[in-house]
UniProtKB/TrEMBL annotation:
Family: Belongs to the GreA/GreB family. GreB subfamily.
Protein's gene: greB
Entry keywords, A to Z: DNA-binding, Elongation factor, Protein biosynthesis, Transcription, Transcription regulation
PANTHER family, alphabetized: TRANSCRIPTION ELONGATION FACTOR GREA (PTHR30437), TRANSCRIPTION ELONGATION FACTOR GREB (PTHR30437:SF6)
Pfam name, any one: GreA_GreB
GO molecular function: translation elongation factor activity
Species whose genome carries this gene: Qipengyuania spongiae
Name listed for the protein in its UniProt record: Transcription elongation factor GreB
Lineage start: Bacteria, Pseudomonadati, Pseudomonadota, Alphaproteobacteria, Sphingomonadales
Chain ranges of the Transcription elongation factor GreA/GreB C-terminal domain: 90-162
Length: 163
């Protein structure tokens, strides 16, 4: 797979994959054992039906197990794509940091990352988001229309960087 064609996979940057792995390791190695210890202690205290520590612990254990399963599936399907290895630096592909201007010349900087690492508040947009899909393959000077629930908006690509 090339850095520019992560369409059918779960693309993720090396940093994003490390964050998923760190969360998984923390849950499995720290949180889950702590909760298991609390549940075992609470179970030894007798009547479990009115034991808040036991009931909360079991509920939290299910939440952790559910999140571990989700993280495991995401990591198995992940395809680590290093934006620094992108060959065509003149076009927008996965990992691009793009400076955009709208119709009112207001600028916005976004970085196209994996869906598991998106954070709009930090300017990190997921690979499958409407804006990222519209920007794919764009060059500096290209205008792209993005269809959003609130209507259409046109963006012009001002700069592309893969730093």
């Amino acid at each position: 797979m090339t850095a520019s064609s992560p369409d059918r996979t779960n693309p993720i940057t090396p940093r994003g994959y490390a964050a998923l792995k760190a969360r998984y390791d923390h849950l499995l190695g720290t949180e889950r054992p702590e909760i298991a210890e609390i549940v075992n202690w609470a179970a030894g205290n007798g009547d479990r039906s009115e034991n808040g520590d036991y009931l909360y612990g079991r509920k939290r254990m299910r939440e952790i197990d559910r999140e571990l399963g989700h993280l495991s599936r995401r990591m198995k399907s992940a395809r680590v794509v290093d934006p620094g290895e992108q060959r065509d630096l003149s076009r927008v592909f996965f990992g691009a940091r793009v400076t955009l201007a709208d119709e009112e010349d207001e600028q916005r900087i976004v970085t196209i990352v994996g869906d598991d690492e998106q954070d709009a508040g930090q300017g990190l947009i997921g690979w499958t988001s409407p804006l990222a899909r519209a920007l794919r393959g764009a060059e500096i000077g290209d205008c792209r229309i993005v269809r959003l629930p609130g209507g259409e908006k046109e963006w012009e690509v001002i700069a592309i960087d893969y730093a």
